[in-house]
Amino acid sequence: MTDKIVVGLDGTQTGERALSFATDLASKMTDCELLAVYVIEWSPFTFQTAEENEKRHARREEEIAMAMARIVEPAVEKLIAAGFKATGLVRHGDVAETLNRLTVKHGGSQIVVGRVSAGGFSKRIFGSSTQNLVMSADVPVTVVG
Amino acid sequence: MKNSFKLGLATALATMASSPLAAQDAMTFDAKVNEVFANITGPFVNLIFAPFPGTDFPWIVMWLVVAATIFTLYFGFVQFRFFKHAIQLVKGDYSDPNDAGEVSHFQALATALSGTVGLGNIAGVAVAVGIGGPGATFWMILAGLLGMASKFTECTLGVKYRNEYPDGTVSGGPMYYISKGFDELGLPGGKILAVLFSIFCILGALGGGNMFQANQAHAQIQTVMGFEFSGLITGIIFAGIVFAVIVGGIKSIASVTEKIVPIMGLLYVGAALIILIVNYDKIGWAFGQIFTGAFTGLGVAGGLVGALIQGFKRAAFSNEAGVGSAAIAHSAVKTKEPITEGFVSLLEPLIDTVVICTMTALVIVISQQLIVNPATGLYVLNEAGTAIATIGDTSGVALTSAAFGSGISWFPYVLAVAVILFAFSTMISWSYYGLKAWTYLFGEGKITELVFKIIFCIFIVIGAAASLGPVIDFSDAAIFAMAVVNIFCLYFLMKLVRTELNSYASRLESGEIKKFEH
């Protein structure tokens, strides 16, 4: 059976560490695929001006293209170069919810993420994405420090 | 006080070209602006508000209500049948998670609402209740409920016939659905009607979406400051800030306002609820006044018909159903089914008129600011006989402020901030609607856009300086002129909406359209 590990990228050092941990893990398995995911934090319940709405579709395309080029593609290339079967995805949404949804959808058996994704004040109020993911995920989650 | 007195007279003096009180203003700039403005706009205003021959009933009010009733019947009470579905759409139950990041139904609704929730809900309701008595509220609620069907029709068309450009931006609104829809049906004249709508939309943006807001914001600032000063000063400051946003591209001001306005809206409804809860024993009585007043007039100026006209007119001005403005705001949403945006938009008149306006009216009635003759139980008219006498002779924003102040003493200060922010956000929204109409006429381009934006800012100054009478008349007239063209065209286009509605309803029933797992 093919195992699939989903790696949550965040464009920072911790995301990198999550990626290398996932690589280690995958190399110990006989047949393992990797899915590198970058979630752009976004909520459908925000308030915007009419002008922002008008340009939203174009902005979204830009955001996806940028995240793909700067974060996801380099990670996927690195994995492929290391001999793994790897794919990448960029999605908008709530980080924890989206990671979990994509994992389930793509048949992932576990998720690896970095430790910190929100800090300070906002973390106190909303909790971090990592905490939310750990509490709500349908598959085992590894948090890399 | 003088200012608020003027406010009360304003709508009553509908047929007079300029308020005689303006002459008392020492500021010559303000007086001059007022005179010139009133003379120029007079004929246009008189045409729009012309009464049916032999009555005082303005034909335009009938135009809006008849249209809303026809749409309600034609779509089989869509506002009630699809109400629950509309809520589910706003919650995102039917949104494809793969489309996350696009404009959501909630965002489109919130944007459209921030353009309509504003002074109409605070000042407009006070004008309606002050002149038409509590009974005006009943007609306002009725107009709001019927107006939901008008909104549904125009917003569905707005999304269906919007323009999508290669760079990913979108433009929509009545001018697009009128010209494309008429073409599709093989009807002549679509282009001319679209141009006519655009002209009225620009006037509406400059009037109700700009001058009325600037004017009332100035009135409110004067009340809070406690002394009078030239509207020129307020006008220039407002124009400066709006200029910075729409020309200078300082988005942060606009996005901050967009975030504060909903909070202000909630605060306003919250304060109204607190006052109602504290006075819970009077709620039954207040509704009694509203119902009795709706059919007997309770001795107010103009009696039953006066209450009805005021209620309908203020509802239309507040929720803009049938005007076509919301169709511009809603057209940015990402959806494969244009009709879903129609369902979402029908919540707008409900929130704006049925909930928020009714709250304001209830607070005004319950706080007993309107003076009742204890012997007869009828309302006492003011000296001029044009409106109900109020404690301290207040009307418009000042009446709402006094009503809230009698329940929560410090609330008038919060209200003052709310009025200014609402005015500002409405101006930003309407500058966008006006711009869309402008670019429809003159094409998109940096220079043509700049010309409109500068004209828009100049009108802020004029609006703040002119007295309320001519401003409110012009604002109403311009916005209603949009409705004349828009509704006329909707009668031809509504069958296109019905096709969409039938197809969607059957697919929803068969389970082809289903909720997404989130």
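Chain B has one domain: 2-504.
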